[in-house]
Design goal:
With 107 residues, this protein is of the alpha/beta class. The chain has four helices and three strands; from the N terminus they run H-E-H-E-H-E-H. Helix 2 links the parallel strand 1 and strand 2.
Length: 107
């Protein structure tokens, strides 16, 4: 079982890296379609600010990190392995930029 201090230490390391708009992928976040996610990414990109994406470890994400987020996004109510979530998030970010450029990748 994860010690509370480990999650706190992890959150401190995550928060040091957070810059600009912070997007946290968390199960309790907002459920959005790829198109809705793309619209959010367009708004964030157009703001000229950096975007930091946060994926919690297999032990979850500390509340302090969720509170720092500009938006919480849920990929699903289901639980996925951490490494798979990294691939899913990367693909959805790529898909969002393809949607916003009108590329045919999305379909």
């Amino acid at each position: 079982m994860l010690k509370k201090n480990s999650l706190i230490e992890e959150s401190e390391a995550i928060l040091k890296e957070c810059r600009g708009i912070v997007v946290v992928f968390a199960i309790e976040g907002e459920s959005v379609s790829s198109e809705q996610f793309a619209e959010k990414m367009k708004i964030y990109k157009d703001s000229g600010r950096e975007i930091t994406f946060v994926i919690g470890s297999s032990n979850g994400i500390a509340n302090v990190v969720k509170e720092k987020a500009n938006v919480l996004i849920s990929l699903s109510k289901m639980t996925f392995p951490h490494q798979l979530v990294r691939v899913i998030c990367t693909e959805q970010i790529y898909r969002a930029f393809m949607i916003n450029t009108g590329a045919t990748y999305h379909k």
